Amino acid sequence: MKILKILFVVTIFASLSYKEDNTVLTNDKSFETPEEVAAYTFEVLKNIDKKTNEEFLEQVITYKEFKDLAHNPNAKLGDAVKSKLESVSEGAFTDTSIRDFNDIKKTGKEYYIDWSSITFSEFKHSVMEVGNMKGLKLQTHFKNKDGQIYFVNSLSFYDGKGYRIIKFAEIVPTFNKIKHD
């Protein structure tokens, strides 16, 4: 089953469109399956150390997209989450997103992650459904060139078509290495 998930994610990678600089191109950042969210998350991580704040926000979620999600009548946010998203100011959104981005880059330096050579390892997820709220907590695992495995956390909510990433943060080592033959 794990092999099938990995093959599915690899297939998703192949279907994504890229600019010449390897930036993911997509106007619709709503993904139908957790596998697609994991594949997109991994693509955002590749070469993250070379990205600007603006490129990161454009790839994950902009303030306008965040507000559009909050006001989307088809989004399954639940009243509490919807209210919280609606109350977030542009300054608070930008500050939090940029802090998360810089923390990812800082952690990458601390652990000597070579973002250009990371490889997808696996993903773990849980779907949270309570009343009119449907969310996805995801860990996308990747391997550094030294064999160390890390994961990044992301949080998505269902927008009526698929899962929309709203939070992308925290690089965490798993303290497991892949055994080499």
Give a structural overview:
40% of the residues lie in helices and 30% in strands. Strands 3-7-6-5-4 form a five-stranded antiparallel β-sheet, with helices on both faces. Strands 1-2 form a two-stranded antiparallel ribbon. The relative contact order is 0.19. Helix 1 packs across helix 2 (34-45) and helix 4 (63-70) packs antiparallel against helix 5. The protein has 181 residues and is α+β, with helices and mostly antiparallel strands. The protein has one domain (2-15, 28-175). The longest helix has 21 residues, at 90-110.
List the helices and strands and how they pair.
Layout: H1 2-15, E1 17-18, E2 24-25, E3 30-31, H2 34-45, H3 53-60, H4 63-70, H5 78-87, H6 90-110, E4 119-130, E5 133-143, E6 148-158, E7 163-177
Antiparallel strand pairs: 1-2, 3-7, 4-5, 5-6, 6-7
Strand content: 25-35%
* Contiguous helical run count: 6
Number of structural units classed as domains: 1
Mean pLDDT: 86
**Spatial shape:** globular
Q: If you compute it from the alpha carbons, what radius of gyration comes out, rounded to the nearest whole angstrom?
A: 16 Å
Catalogue the unreliable spans: 3-26
Instruction: State the total count of DSSP E strands.
Output: 7
Helix-strand pattern: HEEEHHHHHEEEE
Largest pleated sheet: 5 strands, antiparallel
In spatial order, strands of the major sheet run 3-7-6-5-4
The end-to-end distance, rounded to whole angstroms, is 22 Å
Helix fraction, binned, reads: 40-55%
Structural class: alpha+beta
